[in-house]
UniProtKB/TrEMBL annotation:
Pfam families: TAXi_C, TAXi_N. It comes from Lactuca virosa. Residues 96-437 form the Peptidase A1 domain. The active site is at D114, D312. The chain crosses the membrane at residues 478-499. This is Peptidase A1 domain-containing protein. Keywords: Aspartyl protease, Glycoprotein, Hydrolase, Membrane, Protease, Signal, Transmembrane, Transmembrane helix. Belongs to the peptidase A1 family.
Amino acid sequence: MTQFPWTPASSTTAAVLLSNFVLLVWAAVDDSSTVILRPPHDGSNRHTMFLPLFPSPSSSSFSGDGKSRRRLHTSDAPSPNARMALHDDLLFDGYFTTSLWIGSPPQKFALIVDTGSTVTYVPCSTCQRCGNHQDPKFNPYLSSTYQPVKCNAGCSSCANDTLQQCLYERKYAELSTSSGVLGEDVISFGNLGQVLPQRSIFGCENMETGDLFTQHADGIMGLGRGDPSIVDQLVDKGVIRDSFSLCYGGMDTGGGAMVLGGISPPSGMVYAYSDPARSPYYNIKLRGLHVAGKRLDLSPSVFDGRLGTILDSGTTYAFLPEAAFLAFKDAIMKELHNVKQINGPDPGYNDICFSGAKSDDGSQLLRTFPTVDMVFGKGQKLSLTPENYLFPHSMVEGAYCLGIFQNGKDATTLLGGILFRNTLVMYDREHNTIGFWKTNCSDLWGRLDASTGDMSPASSASNNNSPRSSSDVGSGRFISLQLIALGIILFLLSNHYAFGV
């Protein structure tokens, strides 16, 4: 899912609680400044996740004083992380989900992991217009630890009833919507790591429309930059380091892994600088593309238009500016022999597909399709195999289609999940870098341990393979990871609000 802004009531109160949970509607105070990435094919029923990116408010009452995060920045002591499995399949489902447990006793939910959003939300039992999802709706009356977030200066709007709860609302580029109330409860991250259950603020849906209504997943886990995100809440409490990682399974396996918190970067990880001032999203400095070892004749500025180059785990495929897409497509086709171009599986899309590949699955596609290199700011390269830019034709066995498309007339480069199959992506927000490591994500834990030789999630600041500077440091159409840490961190229960009936 790609961007998610929200609409604060005034420019002076960047309504943290609301801005944190107004999923795809992080509207800035001035509507003219809001930017939305729109899918190139509106109205199609293809299972493609594509949520809009919006700028985040510049300030928020939810952020606190930020001292805990600054202390984390200067500490090299190991801290816990949460290891979590990813489920579902990028192409068949359009997303990857992970499990969160909310309340006491815990109620389980399957949430889409989304780096383009700061909101975490689930359907509420009071919802009269929510779809039938994977798990039962969240029932706050069954949780002894649930508390509503009362109306305050940070709310963009408030419920006109006796509870006077903060309300949230979000809209997606493909016209789905969600709205509801904000609540606070204990959220658990499973038992694979050492992060204890934490009180966190989340959205409790009372209405959803469009794809949000029909999707199988229960809701969204927002991992984007901004105080409302689960990552920011855990970092602000001093529970984890300011980092998380995702690892998506391959074409024939699906699933994957996720880690909230720091890990020891594996040997061979390739880094790209991510400038938080460039855009409110996870961006990298992409300088060029190589196909079969040959550089495409493109200026680096092509990848720096509008919002720059953005990574979004909630978008399935990848979208390039027009000039880059045309050059990429032509270069791929020049490298193909003994294959036949055929129509795509959906007449609503002009997919570029090929039959005659010398493989019935994704494991042998290199015999037919070339490698693609992404070149970062100082020449570092991340090599992609065919499974990172192809998807299987759903109607023709043994046929494959390009999973990289033209982003309409938009100059933004949007890199969705397909590009990072079997790639550990480490979002090191503490050092403003994003690391990439090609691996088998279905066997991530063993491979990561073998590479690092370290069982603890040590700070990336103390690892020789980790970048320290704020410059480049070395080697998505639809819309995780190190072992447990040493020590347990006790947490303080934050802001209690009375729960009325």
